[in-house]
Write a structure and sequence with these properties.
The chain is mostly helical. Helices cover 87% and strands 0% of the residues. The chain contains 3 helices and no strands. The chain has helices at 2-14, 16-27, 32-53. Helix 2 runs antiparallel to helix 3 (32-53). The two termini are 27 Å apart. The mean pLDDT is 77.
């Protein structure tokens, strides 16, 4: 059981789903600048909302 929790935490820290989403949007012919700026806004929002809650 602890191994599963550790592996889940490892994959959660790697943010694999965001990386796959990035690759998928690039595959749909979105520009890298647009996808990168959207990703930056997402992470900035995550950081700004995470600080008050922690």
């Amino acid at each position: 059981m602890w191994l599963r929790i550790y592996v889940y935490g490892l994959f959660q820290s790697l943010i694999v789903d965001n990386f796959l989403w990035f690759i998928y949007l690039l595959h749909l012919i979105y520009s890298a600048a647009l996808v990168g700026s959207g990703n930056a806004v997402y992470f900035l929002t995550l950081v700004l909302l995470n600080i008050p809650s922690s």
